Amino acid sequence: MSRRTFIRRFREEAGTTPMAWLTDARIDRARELLKASNVPVEQVGRLTGLGAPASLRAAFHRHLGTSPQEYRTLFRHRDETART
After folding, report:
1. Measured between alpha carbons, how far is 71 from 77 in angstroms, rounded to an integer?
2. 5 Cβ partners below 8 Å, 6+ apart?
3. How is residue 17 annotated by DSSP?
4. Residue 76: its pLDDT value, please?
């Protein structure tokens, strides 16, 4: 199967390109790590395939409009508030 055919068929099934799907999956995993672990932000990018911290920050700003550290702080605060 050619690259072009694969991308077309993937888009028909998933509604997005393979790269956009992969990036979304990586962002979702990074969000989980930031909310539920103490893994340093510098390592989250590497663990999720988003690469260096600068790449992680850029992807977060592009997709979520916030930085990874701000995201972690916001959701940790929400979790603490929900528990009390």
Report:
1. 10
2. none
3. -
4. 76
| Chain position carrying tokens 């068929």 | 9
Which parts of the chain have pLDDT scores under 70? 77-84
pTM of the model: 0.82
Q: Where along the chain do its domains lie?
A: 3-83
- Find the Cα–Cα–Cα–Cα dihedral 67, 72, 77, 83, rounded to 10°: 150
Q: What is the dihedral of CA 25, 29, 35, 36, to 10 degrees?
A: 150
Say if residues 66 and 34 touch (Cβ distance below 8 Å).
no
What would be the CATH architecture of the domain defined by 3-83? Orthogonal Bundle (1.10)
User: What is the residue type of 46?
Assistant: R
Per the CB < 8 A criterion, the answer to whether 41 and 53 are in contact is yes
Both tokens of 38, joined, read 């103490």
